[in-house]
Amino acid sequence: MKLILKYTLLVAVCFALMNVLAAQDTGSKKKKKKGKKGEPELPVVSRGVLDSISGSLVWVTGGRFTMGNRSGEADERPEYEVVIDGFAISKYPVTQRQWTAIMGNNPSEFTGCDQCPADRVSWDDAQRFIETLNKLSGKKYALPTEAEWEYAAKGGPQTRGYRYSGSDNIDDVAWYTGNSGRHPHPVGEKAPNELGLYDMTGNVWEWCRDWYNKNYYELRESNNPTGPASGSGRVRRGGSWFTQEASCKTSTRNSVKQDYKDDSGGFRLVQYPN
User: Fold this and answer.
1) Is residue 87 located within the same domain as residue 7?
2) What is the rounded distance in angstroms from the CA atom of residue 192 to the CA atom of residue 153?
3) Nearest to 130, CA basis, from 94, 86, 89, 92
4) Is the model's pLDDT at 180 over the cut of 50?
């Protein structure tokens, strides 16, 4: 009789232990957000980080503007009129805090500054960030086209025709080689432009969606242009902490390979109405 009782007690203990282990396993699985079959699992990202991205979007009312600069470099000419539909764009470049939360790493050269722009980010890297962010948020973010970027940098329908984004005095609105101390700075420390957008001049170069072609403006594509079908690299705009004043104009164009990354390159996001 005692043997039977001992055996029954042992079986009960085993079953209880199995139930505890099963519950722990189920709980651990719930902590991971699975992607589609064959895709890596998505990170767990706080609502605060996602809100910091969606909450910083500024609506840019569509309109007509003059793209390029008749007194600029050869690839900024000719000036021509472009029509842009409305879109939303981030007040700031994507920060190191946002990048790290979404991607689980920080590629930046200048670490230790969560609110500084993420740097050492290639065009390809930006696309991976956007793909992950869209899956996490259920929204549709993208890089701006070159025309959208310039329209926003020039102040959209509220433009006052400044040379830089928000002022004719670069020190008011930008970190560039003349005042940066040879490093990027936290976003939003300088004055905004007419739309309330910060750092569109200086701090970091910003990727656009388009391929680069130095003669593209000669086509005068005027209705929401998206750039050539191919090119020598991808477009970057705005200048950086390492850029001379003369190359920080709102019309300045820069091109590098889409897998290129350096300590003066980052990006900001756009979103379109449904």
Assistant:
1) no
2) 10
3) 94
4) yes
